[in-house]
Amino acid sequence: MTLITKRADSAKKPHKTNRLYVALGLAAALGTGAVVSLGQSQAQNALTMPPTSNPAAASFGFADLVARVKPAVVSIRVKREIGNVSFEPGHPRGNGRSFGNMPNIPKDSPFYDFFERFQRGPSSQQQGPKPKRYGMAQGAGFFISADGYVVTNNHVVKDSSKIEIVTSTGEVLDVELIGRDPKTDLALLKVPGNRKFDYVELTSAPARVGDWVMAVGNPFGLNGSVTTGIVSARGRDIGSGPYDDFIQIDAAINRGNSGGPAFNLKGEVIGVNTAIFSPSGGSVGIGFAIPASMVKSVVADLKDNGSVTRGWLGVQIQPITKDIADGLGMKKAGGALIADVFDGSPAKAAGFETGDAVITLNKKPVKGPKELARMVAKLKPNEKITFTIVRDGSKITRTVKIGKLPGSDKQASLNKPAQKLNLASLGLSFANKPGLGVVVSAVDADGLAATKGIKRGDVVLEVSGKAVTSPGDIENRISKISKAGKKTALFLIKSKRGKRFIALSLGKA
Fold it and tell me: Who contacts 474 (Cβ-Cβ below 8 Å, separation ≥6)?
């Protein structure tokens, strides 16, 4: 069964009040690494569970825990401007129209003309600017300090014209948006004034697989709903961005739970509920929460600066598989392979090269590209960091002055190639294309290259560390590699998605 990623927020729009909507996946990144817990000096307001002399008693119920932490959890209501929405001609309800908060009215309905005249007003001849239309989105959040700071998801509050929270007692309060971070899908709000609020703290201990977890939120607008389960897994990558590091929980999470807290038995927040996997839009017991450690660092930056500053190395990286490790002369897979070094980047200034394999950062092992991305993101701009890399089978060190993460990356576009040269053993044909170089002109659908993701239009830049400028260069390189007894050729490929290394087994070629 195909799983569809849905956000756990609830968006109510006049034209689709009873329809679930598919939300986007998440992007996640880390802050500067400053780890603080807001409001720790105000411990008299913190809502945490006291130690118990009988730990087994906690398994008999969650009522005491709910009573302690629920006052810190809030529902969030967001007002958003929306445009007029119409159905496409082929849509099952394409012959109808929505009027305000009324559902889609078919044109053959006896009420269609009535609502159309009502919307136009008393005179169909009167013309003027159309009034703005608004929809309401709902989510959850929680106080993290006595002075009124509230954490929620970015996707709950983005594009908002007005944000308000509803406390556990039903009080409605306007809030200010302090800052939001799309890369981690986190946002920080603040209740204006000097009021004091009950709050909860973010845990300092990482969640363990099998730990009890309790979620509190606002699913489908049902304020203060409580669900329980366990931590199912850690370090989940759901494809939302280069910094994915989610906690998976099986407590029921539905739309409207977004931004709400997931608690441990001490009443500490282990994560912010953010996304679900679901084929239908409802909970199937697979929810994802942003870990408290990430929330702490991001919230600290949002509170101080209104945005998040991240370290930047300036490279494009990919995993090192066993095949790629063989091609690099490495004894085992691991680390992050540099597929491209950006001009003007800190890595370029430090002498990094395409094909380098990063294996440590400040003597800490780098397991893969995701971990390297998170490690670099935590660093502060201008901080000097030492990397160990493998180049041509030898270990060398490079010291880098970390930069500040810029906005966006550029992608190249390719044209179709011309002449052909076939390398049957690889299932590829190549051609010289002026201004581009050696271009893949054809890919055998049943060949090895196709299984590795090489496509027509990709450009071959290097083969096993040597630049190639013609199809003949590729043949010569493969011939030399085979004669040297190597079984793998490492191709550096440039495509619309950027650069990446692909290892192709030569077999008997």
Answer: 423, 430, 438, 460, 463, 468
Is 303 in a helix, a strand, or coil? helix
Indicate the pLDDT class of residue 114, thresholds 50, 70 and 90. low
Residues 6+ apart with CB under 8 A from 336: 317, 318, 319, 320, 357, 358, 366, 368, 369, 371, 372
3-state secondary structure (DSSP) of residue 249 = strand
Which residue in the list 37, 145, 258, 293 is annotated as catalytic? 258
**With left for phi above 0 and alpha for psi between -120 and 50, is residue 168 left, alpha or beta?**
alpha
| Average model confidence (pLDDT) across the chain | 76
Question: Can you list the domains of the chain with their CATH numbers?
Answer: 27-50+63-75+140-305 (2.40.10.120), 311-404 (2.30.42.10), 421-505 (2.30.42.10)
| Confidence at residue 40, expressed as pLDDT on a 0 to 100 scale | 41
Span 483-500, average pLDDT: 82
Quick one: tokens of 15? Answer: 């034209």
102-106 and 176-181 strand pairing:
unpaired
| pLDDT score for 63 | 92
Residue in this structure with the two tokens 């013309």, named with its chain if needed: 127
Q: Which two tokens stand for residue 424?
A: 């049957």
Residue type, 8: A
Would residue 91 show up in a list of annotated catalytic residues for this protein? no
- Tell me: pLDDT of 117 over 70: no
Q: Which of 9, 147, 185, 326 is catalytic?
A: 185
Average pLDDT of 461-483? 81
Dist. CA 391–CA 478, nearest whole Å: 20
Tell me whether residue 155 is one of the annotated catalytic residues.
yes
Q: State what percent of residues in the chain have pLDDT above 70.
A: 71
Q: Using alpha carbons, select from 280, 225, 214 the residue that is nearest to residue 256.
A: 225
Residue-level length of the chain = 509
Q: Is 174 a known active-site residue?
A: no
CA nearest 141: which of 220, 199, 39, 73?
73
**What average pLDDT does the segment 4-8 reach?**
46
Cβ(377)–Cβ(310) below 8 Å: yes
